[in-house]
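[audit] Reproducing an earlier prediction to check determinism. Same input, same settings, fresh worker. If the tokens differ from the archived copy the diff job will pick it up downstream; this log only records the rerun itself.
[audit] input (272 residues):
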Amino acid sequence: MKADDSDSSPSEAGVTVVKISGTLLDQPADLDAFWRSVANLADSGPLVLVHGGGKQATALAERLGHTPTVVQGRRVTTDLDLDIVQWALCGKINTQLVAAAKQHGLRAVGLSGADDSMLQVEKRPAWTVDGEQVDFGWVGDVVGVDPDVLHHLVASGRVPVVAPLGIDDAGQVYNVNADTVAQNIAAALGASKLLLVTASGGVRREAESAETHLDTCDADMVATGIAEGWIEGGMRVKVETALAALDSGVREAFICAANDLLARSHATQVVA
């Protein structure tokens, strides 16, 4: 079942969905600023946190002598990759984030999209990329969201911390891109805001130049950036999922830095 706006209870009006990458865990100063901002956000309304962890999954893979394959910002997930993703994201990162939330006075509950069949997926069909067929393995495309468990958690004042895994009708677990998970959860909850946290703090025409930062980015600009190559990889996924969120009824979508969650004064607002 995919929820629509009518499924959101009055206590969830104005829910904010925040997505962070595992990279933030390796940046103590930014992580502390992030949690202080999250605590302030939680004071003003219900909050759901979705996290990635590609960097940690890759590091663990390399320790095991395995080099992951990433295509257009999305990880090809073999049997071993799926094990690694579950170990890194559900085993370590999710627990670390819940513990950090406790340190900042938040009542957080860690779970994944597989819990209570929250995130329902199907195996991604092969893509044609640069003329070649790419089988992504155990990567899932979202076909439905049942946000019931999220409703219960936010209604009780808790902050769900969601790892990006999904499950199919047969009980097979899949790796799902975390930005995509955040977008689908935001849509299912009828969220007012989707905040995608990134190290750059927004979209830039030149990745290493803060002077090329964009205050806003619309669909035409996204298409231009992709065609010209300055929107690619993980940033391409972010802007595309932000546009999808707006199309599904989320009121606002921003790409921002960890210390800019509240003011969003240096963020890029993605607009339809």
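[audit] rerun output stored. Observation attached for the diff report: The chain has a mean pLDDT of 91.
[audit] end
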